[in-house]
Amino acid sequence: MPVFDTKHQRAAWLVAILGVVLVIALFPYASGLLGVPVLYVAVAPLHERLMRWIRIRSVCSVIVIAVVLVGLVLPLVWLLTLLVGQAPGAANAILGSSLLQRIGTLRIGTFEVGPQLKQAGSDAVSFLAGSAFSLLGTATRITINLLLTMFGLYYLLVDPNRAWRGIRFFIPFSDANVAVLRERFGAVTKATIIGTGLSAVIQGVLMWVAFGVFGLPNGAFWGAVVVMFSLLPVLGAGLVWGPAALVLFSDGRAGAAVGMVAWGMIMAALVDYLLRPYVSNKYAQIHPLITLVGAVAGVSYLGIIGLLIGPLALLYFFELLTMYQKEYLK
Question: What is the chain's Cα-based Rg?
């Protein structure tokens, strides 16, 4: 079947090839580009409120960008710096803990499995500490992604209708369905940002306090780790407070270990059974499995920001699938 006979076919192939090349070239900065519409949905209400007082869109956009930098970017940079800076110290504390030493003496019948378990645990901790910065990405890549997000957010705030008109032409659905799709995109984005982000921060702070109450070191670091892990439903913060309870128990502090377990379970119950369902019911119904699968896939391709972008991308896919079914598979 000839594919280069007409100008139309040659033009189509040229556009397709250039599109693939462009996607490959921009893939390292996908998180920065995807962050533009996500942040826009989050800060657009603030921009509209400012427009009631300040009639100049560009000025309102600059103010919103400043608010995002101070209220979101600076705390996030501090969080990432804390993770990278304290990772070696936290790893050394684990490697020198009494729990790991006791694991090394574990026997099952006549088989000494402790040394192998201890070595495996030591290798895993050392790997996580050494790869902390690589998971986040290089400083240059993070900076470029941040600049792309801020510039894109500014121009989207200044003239959102122009961007929408440019995208609308390529959306193969009717105007009525596109309006519903646009509303659903906004709803799932708000539900993900507010529900997941707020619950992550709350659990991180509570875990920081718990480490201080029960006398465990590196509380700020493990609180930051909980902020990241709590984006994963089901597992979440239990990956931190569970081992912390084991460390307390191995040190002969059974009461503190029970307290840590109770603290973690109550914290998880408050967040997973009260806060997240409330936000989900208010904005959009999001199944925990979608969040889990999206987060795992997202972090594999986009680094730590993929914990948020991954679930959103998966949710957007299912929204498009639902819209396709409604319009073309009646």
Answer: 24
The three-class DSSP label of residue 108 is strand
Q: Could you write out the three-class secondary structure of 183-222?
A: HHHHHHHHHHHHHHHHHHHHHHHHHHHHHHHCCCCCHHHH
pTM: 0.69
Provide the β-strand partners of residue 107. Answer: 112
- Tell me whether residue 202 is exposed, middle or buried, using C-beta atoms within 10 angstroms of its C-beta: 0 to 12, 13 to 18, 19 or more: middle
- According to DSSP, the residues that pair with 111 across neighbouring strands are 108
Nearest Cα neighbor of 256 from 187, 193, 323, 210 is 210
Band (89; pLDDT cuts 50, 70, 90): low
pLDDT in tens, 160-169: 888 788 788 7
- Say if CB 146 and CB 39 are below 8 A apart: no
What is the Cα–Cα distance from 152 to 142, expressed in whole angstroms?
15
